[in-house]
């Protein structure tokens, strides 16, 4: 049976730690495709597409230097006694394209479903799909000559399952209050660092472990993810910190409540119940009803579950989804994400070609630098919480905008509200991220091989920062019920825009003859568009602060209730 929100709140630290580990091992593992490709070739997937000549040469996996014989139109090689060829590469890369496309294209429908039904069902489905994908690859490895087609279904389910677990983990930080952006960044960092999972599995594979055994153990670990979600994740979506306080839990059976009340909903309920009691008492005064409140008609006096659902929606429903889509902040965030994604993905796709041009075709040196780039992906896990900390800066010191009794000291400026402080923090985060992106573009232009290590580091940091900053911005500005849908929309549009990296790559290897200089210059100029978002956020925060000061200067009218000296409401 699924736990309640209050129970899940008590287990939030366990859920957060396990979510980070699960993201590392099961989310975007397809980003480590280069290592999986070698293992699939070694197991003979689609090797039947290769034509074997009479004289063939055996090639060990670790030997990357290949000599081509004179007079042969296409060199024939074997890997782990299985033939490999260009046709095999094209078919396996097509399977990878299907799986990696689902990593981005499925985000929008996943976000809509998650906002409506909560993360539990999606996480259960995602872990089950991931486990089944591992079993499909293992089953196909038993007879690759006849079952290689299963790799398409396996990678599609792998991408779908991984994105389900990634998306559902992004709602968990709602339970950490003012640290929400920090935990969002941690979840995104673990997602980005999952690219090291397949390289790690390849190390185990190279040590002599059987490929099928590795996949069966991995599928068993995915079943543990299913069990953990079944025990600890609630059915309801996680409300934002502004909407729910899990530390208060009260149940009034004598008032006729058929549900538990938590946080701010309690105060709304008590206010409405008090009003109904007052009205009911005034109407029934001539009849002298019983003094025992529990003996009165609870259905007429007290709120029902329907009243709870209607009256506790608050301001969250005041902003429609379409209004959020066409808001300036979301549109500018789309521009920032599209430009950044194109810049990062182009570098990942053209990295081998760029390194070959810098090393004059030395494949062994290219292999070393490629391995360094793979190891540095773990930096996402370490650096992403930094930008989350920037997003949460000084939120505890802000004033509560619902507290009307707070007054500033004479001569001292008022502290900003949490909403204004979140926008200010987001401005700083995007300025810092865009400066790093510009620095990355500069290092790409300089044709120096050792300098590419700095490019690797900046690439990894920017990839973690930009997703964390956008996620924190959406969590701060938009209703929590729209977080998944907005993130999915942004991810889908930026993924479609990033497809432009293919014609850019073709231009680099074609008319530019392998020289990436002018493509990098053009992308560096395009990266300047990323500063539009922080500029607008800066203006927007100043506008909100100015409106707040004007509102504070207006005279207040207080209403006193029950002849008390304490103001109960204001207009």
Count of individual helical segments: 24
What is Rg? 29 Å
**What general outline do the C-alpha atoms trace?**
globular
Question: Strand share of the residues?
Answer: under 5%
- How are the strands of the biggest sheet laid out side by side? 1-2-3
Structural class: mainly alpha
Fraction of helical residues: 55-70%
Intertermini distance: 46 Å
Number of strands: 7
Mean pLDDT, to the nearest integer, reads: 75
Describe it.
The strands form 3 sheets. The chain has a 3-stranded mixed β-sheet. Strands 4-5 form a two-stranded antiparallel sheet. A two-stranded antiparallel ribbon has the order 6-7. The protein is globular. Residues 55-73, 245-264, 282-317 and 555-571 have low confidence and may be disordered. The longest helix is centred in the middle third of the chain and has 32 residues, at 328-359. α4 (86-105) packs parallel to α8. β2 and β3 (82-84) form a beta hairpin. It is built from 24 helices and 7 strands. 63% of the residues lie in helices and 4% in strands. With 571 residues, it is mainly alpha-helical.
Summary, kept brief:
The chain is mostly helical and about 575 residues long. It contains 24 helices and seven strands.
Strand and helix map with partners:
Elements: H1 5-10, H2 12-26, H3 33-42, E1 57-59, E2 77-79, E3 82-84, H4 86-105, H5 107-117, H6 119-142, H7 144-147, H8 150-169, H9 180-193, H10 197-206, H11 211-232, E4 249-250, E5 261-262, H12 264-283, H13 298-301, H14 305-311, H15 321-325, H16 328-359, H17 363-375, H18 379-391, H19 418-445, H20 451-477, H21 483-497, H22 501-509, H23 517-527, H24 532-553, E6 558-560, E7 567-570
Helix pairs in contact: 2-8, 2-9, 3-10, 4-8, 5-6, 5-8, 5-21, 6-8, 6-11, 9-18, 9-20, 16-17, 16-20, 16-21, 16-22, 16-23, 16-24, 18-20, 19-20, 19-23, 19-24
């Amino acid at each position: 049976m699924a736990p309640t929100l209050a129970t899940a709140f008590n287990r939030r630290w366990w859920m957060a730690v396990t979510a980070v580990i699960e993201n590392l091992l099961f989310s975007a593992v397809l980003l480590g495709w280069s290592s999986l490709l070698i293992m699939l070739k070694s197991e003979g997937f689609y090797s039947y597409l290769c034509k074997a000549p009479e004289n063939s040469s055996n090639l060990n996996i670790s030997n990357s230097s290949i000599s081509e014989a004179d007079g042969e139109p296409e060199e024939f090689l074997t890997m782990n006694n299985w033939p490999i060829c260009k046709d095999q590469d094209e078919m396996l890369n097509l399977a990878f394209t299907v799986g990696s496309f689902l990593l981005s294209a499925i985000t929008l429908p996943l976000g809509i479903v998650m906002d409506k039904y909560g993360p539990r069902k999606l996480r259960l489905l995602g872990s089950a799909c991931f486990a089944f994908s591992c079993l499909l690859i293992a089953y196909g490895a038993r007879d690759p000559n006849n079952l290689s087609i299963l790799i398409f279904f396996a990678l599609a389910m792998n991408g779908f399952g991984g994105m389900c677990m990634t998306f559902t983990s992004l709602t968990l930080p709602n339970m950490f209050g003012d640290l929400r952006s920090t935990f969002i960044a941690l979840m995104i960092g673990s997602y980005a660092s999952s690219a090291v999972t397949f390289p790690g599995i390849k190390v185990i594979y190279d040590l002599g472990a059987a490929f099928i055994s590795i996949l069966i153990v991995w599928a068993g670990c995915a079943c543990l993810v299913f069990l953990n979600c079944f025990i600890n994740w609630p059915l309801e979506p996680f409300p934002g910190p502004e909407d729910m306080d899990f530390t208060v839990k009260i149940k009034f059976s004598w008032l006729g409540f058929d549900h538990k009340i938590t946080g701010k909903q309690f105060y709304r309920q008590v206010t409405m119940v008090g009003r109904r009691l007052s009205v009911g008492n005034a109407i029934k005064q001539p009849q002298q009803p019983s003094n025992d409140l529990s003996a009165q008609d609870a259905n007429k006096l007290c709120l029902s579950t329907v009243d709870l659902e209607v009256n506790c929606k608050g301001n969250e429903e005041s902003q429609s989804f379409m209004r959020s889509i066409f808001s300036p902040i979301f549109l500018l965030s789309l521009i920032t994400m599209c430009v950044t994604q194109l810049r990062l993905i182009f570098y990942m796709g053209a990295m081998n070609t760029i390194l070959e041009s810098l090393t004059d075709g030395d494949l062994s040196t290219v292999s070393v630098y490629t391995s360094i780039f793979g190891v540095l992906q773990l930096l996402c896990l370490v650096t992403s919480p930094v930008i989350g900390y920037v997003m949460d800066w000084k939120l505890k010191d802000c004033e509560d905008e619902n507290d009307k009794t707070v007054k500033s000291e004479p001569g001292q400026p008022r502290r900003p509200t949490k909403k204004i402080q979140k926008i200010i923090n987001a401005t700083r985060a995007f300025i810092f991220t865009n400066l790093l992106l510009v620095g990355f573009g500069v290092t790409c232009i300089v044709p120096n091989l050792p300098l590419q290590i700095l490019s690797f580091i900046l690439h990894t940091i920017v990839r973690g920062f930009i997703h964390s900053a956008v996620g924190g911005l959406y969590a701060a500005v938009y209703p929590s019920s729209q977080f998944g849908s907005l993130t999915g929309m942004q991810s889908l549009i930026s993924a479609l825009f990033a497809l432009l990296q293919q014609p850019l790559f073709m231009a680099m290897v074609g008319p530019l003859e392998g020289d990436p200089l002018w493509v990098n210059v053009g992308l560096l100029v395009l990266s300047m568009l990323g500063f539009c978002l922080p500029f607008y956020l800066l203006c927007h925060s100043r506008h909100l602060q100015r409106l707040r000061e004007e509102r504070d200067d207006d005279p207040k009218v207080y209403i006193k209730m029950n002849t008390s000296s304490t103001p109960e409401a204001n207009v």
